[in-house]
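User: I've been trying to design a sequence by hand for this structure and keep getting stuck. Would you show me what you'd pick, starting by listing the structure so we're on the same page?

Assistant: Good idea, let's start from the same input. This is the structure you sent:
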């Protein structure tokens, strides 16, 4: 049996706002979320697993349309595993390129900081 969590706990565990969770449910990214008799969302461990994946994908820049495609494929069944893997591999390649770009920009930034440190030392020595 799956443990269940309130929407408040779903928000806390996922890092998404309640508005985002509602939006994800509305567009079909998150489906089958249970409700209490009062209509409040109740998240299962499986739902939280999906939210953890969605958080990873969003944080790494995957467009929502691709996230929806991934979720749609997953719901279609195991025969889509290859397509899901390919989708994630394409995304991972984009993430790796972004990481290389960030590393180059970070290196440039650190070099600029070293420039100011060296300039500051020279000004101190001259005075």
């Amino acid at each position: 049996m799956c443990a269940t969590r309130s929407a408040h706990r779903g928000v806390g565990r996922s890092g998404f706002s309640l508005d985002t969770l509602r939006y994800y449910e509305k567009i079909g990214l998150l489906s089958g979320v249970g409700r209490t008799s009062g209509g409040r969302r109740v998240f299962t461990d499986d739902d939280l697993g999906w939210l953890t994946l969605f958080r990873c994908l969003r944080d790494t820049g995957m467009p929502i349309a691709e996230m929806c495609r991934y979720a749609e494929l997953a719901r279609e069944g195991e025969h889509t595993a290859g397509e899901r893997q390919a989708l994630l591999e394409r995304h991972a390649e984009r993430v790796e390129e972004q990481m290389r770009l960030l590393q180059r920009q970070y290196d440039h930034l650190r070099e600029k900081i070293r420039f100011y440190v060296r300039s500051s030392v020279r000004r101190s020595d001259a005075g």
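That's my pick for every position. To get oriented when you compare it with your attempt: The mean pLDDT is 89. The chain is about 70% helix and 5% strand.
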